[in-house]
Write a structure and sequence with these properties.
182 residues, Rossmann fold, 29% strand, 5 helices, 7-stranded mixed sheet, alpha/beta
Length: 182
């Protein structure tokens, strides 16, 4: 597991307005620490207590929750988070509830493995791989406006097939989505 911040998250994190951020399936907390450094209070969620111990830091509240456990319910209320960051994780039953927790002007930053990743190794189970255009459809179905999307092979931190999305809720101001050039 890499401690390097995803370039995708790093690029779009400055769009997240003031407020709390959820780092879902946070692992060792690389993105939780980044969002806290940007001034956000962060809720870092993972099912691994050892990973959460590594994720601890100023401005970060950790929560050990196994969201895939039988009968598990979404632990967060509506409109709670200014931003939600998800990397290298996909559990489709959570998506609708997760997006309900996004504030009306909130930002979703999502990056995970896609169909075709088996050629590079794990994950290879289709349950953990996005289908072509799946993140775009998710955004459309939930009324999000897409700021950026990518679907293809990445070389770092290791070769993988990924989809990446940055999308915003309807109250997010369009002019706030302007980013500095690469």
């Amino acid at each position: 597991m890499s401690d390097q911040i995803s370039p995708w998250v790093q690029r779009y994190a400055p769009l997240v307005p003031g407020g709390a951020v959820l780092d879902l399936a946070c692992g060792n907390g690389r993105h939780a620490r980044h969002m806290a450094a940007l001034g956000h209070e962060v809720v870092a969620v993972d099912r691994d207590p050892a990973a959460l111990a590594a994720a601890c830091g100023a401005g970060i509240t950790t929560s050990c929750i196994d969201l895939e456990e039988a009968g598990a319910a979404w632990a967060f209320g509506p409109h709670r988070f200014a931003g939600i960051v998800v990397t290298n994780y996909l559990h489709r039953p959570l998506i609708a509830d997760m997006l309900t927790s996004l504030a009306p002007n909130g930002v979703l930053i999502y990056e995970t493995f896609a169909d075709g990743n088996a050629q590079f190794g794990k994950p290879s189970n289709p349950a953990f791989l996005l289908q072509p255009g799946e993140l775009l459809e998710l955004a459309r179905a939930h009324g999000l406006r897409v700021v950026a999307f990518e679907d293809g092979v990445t070389a770092t931190p290791k070769a993988a097939m990924v989809q990446r999305l940055c999308a915003v809720k309807p109250d997010f101001p369009r002019e706030a989505a302007l980013l500095p050039p690469f």
